[in-house]
Amino acid sequence: MHPPKPWSKTIEPTSYEQIYRFVEQALDECSNLIDHAEADYYQGSVTSINQSTNRPLSVVALQAWSQPLNQLREARLLHDIRNGKAIRELLSDASIGALYGPVTDEGVALMKRVLDKTTEQLYATIPMLINKIADSMNLMEQYFLSFYEIEHIQDIIQNKRKEKLPDDYLETAYTYEKSRWLHIFDVNKSLKNLREMPQRTEDTKGIALSTLSKESQELASRTDCTSLSYLFALPECYYEARRTLHSLRTWLDEDAKYNDFIQTSLKLLEEKYVEAKKAFEIHKSQLSQVEHRAESFRSQLKKLENENAINEKKYDEFETRLNIKEREYISKRLTHEVYEEQLQKLLKQSHDEQDSIGHNLAVGRFQQDIKQLSRELPKLKSQVEAFQTRINLFQKRKDELIEMRIESKKLDKEIQVVLEDKILKENYFNRIQHCRDIMRDIYKCRKTNDLPQKIFYDLPVHNKHSGENEEGKIEVKQFQKLFDCRESFSWKIYLHV
Length: 497
Hints:
The chain folds into two domains: about 15-270, no CATH class; about 275-450, Helix Hairpins. With about 500 residues, the protein is mostly helical. The chain is built from eleven helices and no strands. The protein is rod-shaped, with a radius of gyration of 52 Å. It has helices at about 15-45, 55-75, 85-95, 105-145, 155, 170-200, 215-220, 235-350, 355-445, 450-455, 475-485. Helix 1 (about 15-45) packs across helix 2 (about 55-75) and helix 2 crosses helix 4. Helix content is about 75%, strand content about 0%.
């Protein structure tokens, strides 16, 4: 069985594994190029370097260069050697013996070699390395997509705008997209430094050690080359280039794991979605029950309020009639009692005195009046009690109305509490649903079988569209038709550093 044919970025990719292998190989080539350039810079000198030590090659070489090169610098009374012009003038003076101190042929040859090697690599090796790194980054920009958008991301990573953190459930997608842009920004920044290095070595100000990386400054201090800044033009390039490779390798690793992380986040969101939906439905049902109970209660309250409004009008009328009847009843009852006393007196007199017509008539009248009052008093009492019963009923219904109003307020508060709980559950459910839909869309896009092909031909990425057959695969003819237009599309993202 023949091994799989190596992929070229100019042809249609079949899988992400193919792209990963290509990028990894390209980064390895860049790493080897840096190693070879660095070895050529340090080991190709005329100064013998003891390679048996465990110290880094850069430290061993620069420590060996320090004495002869500093001797040359001092012979021309230079505080620092920062640009190529200073070296060329120094070498010119050395050739005609115009220096102010003794120098060795070994030192002159070493200085010339540093100048030649720096010029050679800055104008040949480093540009080639820049192109290889830029090509790898552009390819990664093209295929390593998060399918998640962060507003003003370029301003955020450059600290021009305050970062607005995402929902916790979208952290996976947000973190990768932000990291993706940080890698692009860092690599572009390093490439910018690499592109500017040739000009910096020839500027009048030259290379100031303080403007270089911390690593280069520490290396200069360790090797006693702090007054030989020009020597660190290439080491700075090696550091910047390795920094880009580290960033791109980190990005490669993150993209390879992105699908699994999205799948894990989506699984969690699916579980949260079920829980949130259940909680929301329960609280929605509770609110419905409370509202139904409140509606029924308000209906009863309204009836009682209408009844009470009618009773309020009747209350004064019944109270007036009650007062009249009470006064009438009391008056007749007192009259009855007085007549009883008078009758008893008359009857007592009848035993002591002889009967007379007048006496008998008086007794008869009292007896007749008492009899009449005895018939009227129960009726009056019954009427008084009836009026009092109605008035008591009015008061009872009024008290019931007050209690129902108090209960209605309690019910309103209960509705408010249940409503707030329902809104909280609904908002949380909507939040989970929104995040789940976003993560689900991301996962579907990333897991699309023909995603590399769609990206290669600059086609929309979604589950199904008019250009797909029943299996969701894009027709080959359509691929070929769009291939000719691909050159007009640029995948490169420019950052203003």
